[in-house]
Amino acid sequence: MRKEDIVRFREEVRDELERDILPWWLALKDPRGGYFGEVDARGHVRKDAPRGVVLDARLVWTFSAAYGALRRPELLEAASWAKDWFVENFIDTRCGGVYWSVAADGSPLEDKKQLYAQGFAIYGLSEWCRVHPDESALEAAVGLFRIVEEHFADPAYGGYVEALARDFSSLPDMSLSAHDINADKTMNSHLHLLEAYANLYRVWPDPALKTASERLLRLVCDTIMAPSGHLGLYFRRDWTALPGGISFGHDIETSWLVQECAGFLGGPSLGETVRPAALRMGAAGNEGLLPDGSMRYERLPDGTEDLSRQWWVQAETVVGNLHLWKAFGDPAGLDRAEGAWAFIRDRLVDRAGGEWYWGLFPDGTPDTTNPKAGFWKCPYHNARMCLQAMEILKDQ
Predict the structure, then answer these.
(1) Class of 3-393 per CATH?
(2) Residue 63: what pLDDT?
(3) 269 pLDDT more than 90
(4) Residues 323, 282: contact at Cβ < 8 Å?
(5) Taking residues 280-286, what's their average pLDDT?
(6) pLDDT of residue 210
(7) pLDDT, tens digit, for every residue of 49-72?
(8) DSSP string spanning 293-328?
(9) CA 7 to CA 191: how far, in whole Å?
(10) How far is it, in rounded angstroms, from Cα 131 to Cα 124?
(11) HSE (CB half, 13 Å, CA atoms) of 228?
């Protein structure tokens, strides 16, 4: 790719972040506090919709990270607004941990304690603390780390249980979503707990946190990743794999996240230890690429494939391939990243209504049945894609 093409690539993703993604989400500010919890596919805001911990924690992360990169005062204000409502309403002051969902007025709805949710709460709060010193927010993030280590950690087999009840007793159904099976342990929760712990270490370099983080890093690379390079999705408590398909988006996402987390925790030396696994995961993820530059969603356990193109998978395809180019010297990685970005730019961004569609159906038409903002649809993967691309492509 020519230098001018790289410059164009970088400017296009920056423009997408600054002119589309961030303004769209900033407009969802609720004067009562926090941000509205749902926008349907046609742009209608449900002002009294319940609010999910995943969306709200990722809003804290997104506005904080965007402020760190762009230094625009309105982004710091937005991050503070999101953080204040999150801390006030999602943290369970009686039992500890964070709720799964709350009503628009902040009253608890689903009070179970999902490992995935604790991870994203730590991730968002630690990113806020990176850009704005805040002892109370740091104390909250550290408290969540200690909750996870006390209640979720499995001393017998390693790793962490998937979910617990409000009081940290066991739950009969620990599934993360309707898409997931009821499993004792999952790839998805461990991956994002690693991401959260490594980010917290950047602002709270505690020895116990580093030990737990490095243990998670080895677990992802040595146990969760199969010899094929694909990630196992579901496991019993003793890490016996359960039936599951192949998630190409998680493969490519994990390929770069393990490298980044290793860098936060131990610098180049730790990064070298995970390079072979990262390279295998990246290659495995790219098995899902389609001729138009996009990434298919997943391969199901029966061998059939889901050819829908979800927004987060396309975003991670860009980032993962940029890392394969930059960290591993794979020249085709840059072309794959640019191809995925071209698909997003031309097919996935809703030019009329703003933000991105949830995805495209297998026939290539936009998915206008799923929301543009909701419990899972957040400005985390796409905003992070833009921020990562801007950083990787600078000075090229």
Answers:
(1) mainly alpha
(2) 98
(3) no
(4) yes
(5) 98
(6) 97
(7) 999 999 999 999 999 999 999 999
(8) S-B--EE-TTS-EE--EEHHHHHHHHHHHHHHHHHH
(9) 32
(10) 11
(11) 12
Mean pLDDT of the chain: 97
Q: Per-domain residue ranges for the chain?
A: 3-393
Angstrom CA distances, 279 to 74, 147, 287, stand at 38, 33, 13
Using alpha carbons only, give the angle 56, 258, 217 rounded to the nearest 5 degrees: 95
- The count of C-alpha atoms lying within 13 angstroms of the C-alpha of 82, restricted to the half-sphere facing its C-beta, is 34
The secondary structure of the chain in percent helix, strand, coil, rounded to multiples of 5, reads 55, 10, 35
Q: Other CB atoms closer than 10 Å to residue 72's CB: what's the count? A: 13
CA distance linking residue 348 with residue 342, whole number of Å:
9
pLDDT tens digits, 164-189: 999 999 999 999 998 899 999 999 99
DSSP 259: H
Residues β-bridged to residue 349: 356
Written as six digits, the tokens of 37 are 């919890």
Query: 384 is written with which tokens?
Result: 């992070």
Residue 227, CA atoms < 13 Å, CB-side half-sphere:
0
Residue 369 scores a pLDDT above 90: yes
E-strand ranges in the chain read 38-39, 45-46, 51-52, 101-102, 108-110, 113-114, 163-164, 185-186, 234-235, 246-247, 298-299, 305-306, 309-310, 359-360
Across the range 333-351, mean pLDDT stands at 98
